[in-house]
Each structure stands twice: as structure tokens, then as C-alpha cells.
């Protein structure tokens, strides 16, 4: 449920039209919906090996990267921390929620209305998460089940269309000459893969809380959950796309933007009750995804980052007062979400934010794939036992190849009419690299310049929490001349201003 709750969000209801517009053919559309889970499988094997090395630590990437790249000291954790903070918005699902709600109630979609509804649903979901973790988890479980049922219903409807039981004429038209119109433009293919990867994002969600999985073999539990959820979602997504292609003309799919599911319901059910109800179910799926990501995934990562002393005001961001929830990370996510929703043009916001959110993370995922080889070598030199769940090199190479492709190919100019934004096609690449540059500047200020100015050195201390888990935090060790003033005491970062 943790994995499915994050995967089944806006992706399957919003990106197929954009993908078809990028690749140009129905055949390539289906190919990309099979490639994405294959690459995700490689990532799942990599995460499993990392998790088997550190089975008691939650936080996933922030932990694995820290262990794989200990030098330069604190560089990787700090860069991952700043990137996680700057990209911790929930705008994409909020935008799709707004579009489907407005469509369901026959309200014309304008930039102002879309932004207002998106900001409102984000506020409601944030409040839900901030007030109660238990009820948030219950909502995730309920909405995850609803998401699966809605997709099963959509697949069943597609079967009826293909069987000739609806008023759709010639449902097999789009399947004739499936690769006609295919593109070989690297930018368009990379854009399509970014979108399908977005639809499958969440297959690793359970690794974020592996330290809280109380079974005999937590890694095996989480690994099996990842495989099962990936298999289930792959089947559902593939046949949902079959349903779209059977019911909606190819040109209409290409021009549907994020409303392919609404268009499908209208084509099959006309103006009936189902055509109004099912878009509401899509909106609820987006709402459930916002809660799942904020409750279980990103807020836990942000809280772990704060506990390590990598952010200013870590006490605020690590605290669970007054409701036993990560209130600080939730508030930060809401402010960032509102900012990007208001700052970007509404018609380009979804595609741009989706692309932007993927690019810096690709750098970290590449580092994780390479870091696994480095960590294996160091552990072998230290005579440590190999991982219980080693990832085969073919999985690592497969995952790394897809990442390198997505890092390089978006710089190639797309074919006319195939760009997914109205401005320069590689803007998100430049902004993504700019975010990484901000990380480097932050590292230099936080770890090098300010300690030099203040006469102290950044040290790492290991702390045992109340539940017995170990966590690391950065502290200040003052030089002797300053330490005399401070009575020789080490001053922790979390107590500093």
C-alpha cells in the first residue's frame, strides 16, 4: 500500500497524451510503458542491496549516498538535503486534481481557477497530514484501494470497448500500423521516458521507512512488496493505455494534455453520470497521492535530513510536536508548492515541474548506481560479509544506462511541435543544474566558510535515540582559543543560530 499509494497518482491519468505527442506512434507509446518498469526493476535491485547493508536506517537515498560517498566529508548528504528541500513540492498532483475537478463540474479551466483549486487541495491535504499520522495512514490505505478499483474499472471498460459492447466504432483503428509516425529524436524519446518514469515513481517508497518495518527480515519484506507492487501496476498501466487507444482517436490523445482520462470517459459514457463520477475518482487518486508522499515519503526524508544537522533550525524540522507529526517539513512543502503554483504559467506548470523534479534526482540516482560498486569494494577490503540481496551487474548497468540517457538527450533540440512546454525546451535542465550549483554554494558556506569565520570545525556525532536507533548529527568543535571562551564545550549545530 505504501508503494501503490504513491505510484497511483496523477501519472496514468495525465501523461499518456504527452507521451504520444512526444513519440508520435501508438507502438512506441506501449514500448515506453514497458521500458519504465524494466528500468525501475533495476533500481529496485540496487535499493535492495543497499537496504541489506543498512537494514535499520530509514531515509533510503540520504542514507545510501552518505555511506557510498564519505569524501569530501558531508558533501553528498548536504547536496541531497538541499535538493530534497528545494524540490519537495507537491504541485503536479495538485494541478491534475484541479483540472479533473473543474472538468467534472463543467467549469471552464482557466489559469486562475486551476491555481486556486490546486492551492486549496494542497492546503487541505497538508492540514490532514499535519494533524494526524494515524488517520493519514488510514486515508492512504482507503484511497489506495479506491485507486486500484478505479483502474480495474477503467481496464474493464476498455475490454468492453474492444469487444464492441459500447457505441465506439472501429475500436481497433489506432492499433493498425502501430509504429507509423514514430520519432527517433533523442529529446522526444527522453521526454517520453521522463513521463513514464514519473507515472511509476513510488516503487521505492517503502525503503524510506525500512527501519520501522518490524518483521524477521525487513529487507525481504520491502523487496517483495516492491516487486509485487511493480508487477501489479505495470499490468494495470499497460491495459489502461490499451483502453485509451481503443476509445479515443489518436489526434485527440495527442492534444489531450493532462485530461486523457476525462476524454476517455466522455467518449465512452457521453454526458452520463459515470462521465461525471469517474473524473472525481481520478481527483481522489491525486489527493491520495499527495497524502501518501507527504506522510510517508518526503516528510520522513526531510526530517531525517534535519536530524543529521544538515539544515538550519533542525530542532523545528525534526520535531513532531504538537500533534506527533512532522509539522515543520509539512509547512515547508506547502510554502514551496504554493510558490511554484503561483510563479509558473498554468499551462506549462505540470510538464515543467515534472521534468524539473526528475533532472537533479537523476544525478543522485546515477551516483547511487556507481556508489554500489564502490561500497562493495570497500566492504570487501574490510573483510565484511557481502550483501544478502546482491544486485546483479546487469540490473545496475540497465538502471545506469537509462539515467545517462535521460541526462544527456534532453539537450538535443526536439522536432517542431513536440516540445512539452511553450518556452525553451532545455530550461528545466538548466534550472536543475542550477539547483545542484546552489547545493555546492550551500555546502561551501555551511561546512567550509562559516566554520573558518567562526573558528570551529564541523564534526559528526552518533546519537542513540529513545527507540534504540542510531542517528548522526553534525556538531561544532571550537578551536582552543574559542573553546576557552565557551568553557571548552562542544556546541551542537542544532543549538546554534
Give the SSE map.
Layout: H1 2-7, H2 11-14, H3 16-23, H4 26-53, H5 61-68, H6 75-86, H7 91-104, H8 111-131, H9 133-162, H10 186-200, H11 218-247, H12 250-254, H13 260-269, H14 273-307, H15 314-318, H16 327-343, H17 346-381, H18 393-408, H19 427-454, E1 456-464, E2 470-478, H20 480-485, E3 491-492
Antiparallel strand pairs: 1-2, 2-3
Helix pairs in contact: 3-10, 4-10, 4-11, 4-18, 5-6, 5-17, 6-14, 6-19, 7-8, 7-14, 7-17, 8-14, 8-16, 9-11, 9-14, 13-14, 14-16, 17-18, 17-19
Description:
This protein has helices spanning 2-7, 11-14, 16-23, 26-53, 61-68, 75-86, 91-104, 111-131, 133-162, 186-200, 218-247, 250-254, 260-269, 273-307, 314-318, 327-343, 346-381, 393-408, 427-454, 480-485, and strands at 456-464, 470-478, 491-492. The chain has 497 residues and is mostly helical. It has a single domain, classed as Up-down Bundle (Amino acid/polyamine transporter I), CATH 1.20.1740. Strands 1-2-3 form a 3-stranded antiparallel sheet. Helix 4 (26-53) runs antiparallel to helix 11 (218-247), helix 9 packs across helix 14 (273-307) and helix 13 runs antiparallel to helix 14. The radius of gyration is 23 Å and the shape is globular. The model is unreliable at 490-497 (pLDDT under 50).
H/E element order: HHHHHHHHHHHHHHHHHHHEEHE
Secondary-structure arrangement, i.e. CATH architecture: Up-down Bundle
User: How many beta-strand segments?
Assistant: 3
Instruction: Find the structural class using helix and strand composition.
Output: mainly alpha
Q: Alpha-carbon distance between the termini?
A: 40 Å
Strand content: under 5%
The CATH superfamily appears as Amino acid/polyamine transporter I
How does the overall form come out from the CA principal axes? globular
Output the radius of gyration.
Answer: 23 Å
CATH class: Mainly Alpha
How many discrete domains?
1
Helix content: 55-70%
Strand order of the largest sheet: 1-2-3
- Low-pLDDT regions: 490-497
